[in-house]
Amino acid sequence: MDRMQIEWVIQWVFLLASVGLFLYWLYRPPFRDWLLVYFCTASFSDLIAVMLVDQKWFSFPVRFWAKNFKSSVLFEFLVLPLVMVFFHKITANAKFSKKLLYATIASIVLSAIEWNLATYTDLIEYHHWNILYTFVSVILFLLAIRYLVAFFRFSAQGGIRRSIHIHNNTQFMDKEDANMNILRHIIRFAVSALVLLIVGWLVPGFTLAGYWTAFVAAVIIALIGWGLEAMMGPRVSPYSRGFVGFIVSAIVIYVTQFFISGFRVTILGALLAAIVIGVVDWFAPAKPRLADPDHHL
User: Fold this and answer.
1) Could you say which of 94, 111, 158, 215 would form a disulfide bridge with 98 (CB–CB 3.0 to 4.6 Å)?
2) CB–CB of 79/109 below 8 Å?
3) What whole-number distance in Å separates Cα of residue 183 and Cα of residue 69?
4) Distances in Å between the alpha carbon of 293 and those of 224, 272, 287?
C-alpha cells in the first residue's frame, strides 16, 4: 500500500468513526444543546481554517471534496465539532480551572495527531504554521466556543429577563421568550446550510464557495420564502409540498445566486436541488407544515 492509499484509508477511518459518534450523540439528550455546540464549532472552525489557508499558513493537499472546500471538511465539520460536543458534556458544571485542564488535554491529543499527519502524510502541510500554534489555538478555540454556547443558552432561556417579578405578593414569570426563537432560527439556518452543502456535492450545476456562503444563502432563501408566503399565502411557498412548492423552491434557489457571491446555480441545478431539498425536508422539515400547526422544532 503506497502513501496515497494510506492517506485515504486514514481519512475514511476518521470519517466512519466520526459519523458513528455523531449518530451516537444524536440520540443523547439534550439534543438541541449538542446540535448548537456542533454547528457553532463547525461554522467558526471552517471560517478560521479558510482564512488561514488563504494566508498560506498551512494547506490540505489531500482531502475530501477538494474542489468545493479549501479546508479539511473531515476535521472542521466532523472531528473538531465532535470533540467540542464531548468537551461541552464533561465540563457542563465545571469551574474554569477544570475546563482549562480538559481543553489542554484535548489540545495535546489533537496536536499530537496533527503533528504526525503533517510529518508523515500530505493530509496537512505546514507553511508558516507549527505545532505550538495548534496547541494554543485549540485550547483557546475550545474555551471560546464553550462560553459562546453558554451565552446563547443563557439568552435563549431568558437570562436576567426571565426572572420572577414580585408585585402585590403575586409572582409573574415570563413564559414566552423571543430569544428562544432566535436560537431556533440559528440552528435552522446552520442545518439548512449543511443541507445546501450536501446538495452542492450531489447536484451538477450547483456550486457553493464554502460553509459560510451556504449559511448566508440559507438565510436569503428563508427571507425570500417568507416574503412570498406573506404576499401570496402559505400555499405559494417554497415550504409547501406538491408541484407548486417544488417550482417555487427551484425559483427561489435560482434567484438567490443574484444576492450573494460564491453561489452559482443553473436552471437545471436549481430544479435538481429543489428535488434533493424536498426529499430531505420530507424527513426533517425546515419549517412546521401547514397541516401540523402545533408542530415545533
Assistant:
1) 94
2) no
3) 27
4) 21, 29, 10
Residue 273 vs residues 38, 67, 200, 208: alpha-carbon distances, Å = 25, 19, 8, 12
Count of beta carbons in the 10 Å neighbourhood of residue 64: 17
Three-state DSSP at 172 gives strand
Report the distance separating Cα 219 and Cα 188, nearest Å: 9
- C-alpha 197: how far from its chain's center? 10
pLDDT score of 28 more than 90: no
Phi, psi values for residue 226, rounded to 5°: -65, -40
Question: Higher confidence at residue 10 or residue 179?
Answer: 10
Look at the pTM and tell me if it is higher than 0.90.
Answer: no
CA distance 276 to 16: 23
User: Which amino acid does the sequence have at 253?
Assistant: I
Q: Alpha-carbon distance 246 to 239, whole Å?
A: 9
In DSSP terms, 58 is beta-bridged to 126
Residue-level length of the chain:
297
Beta strands in 84-161 (DSSP E): 125-126
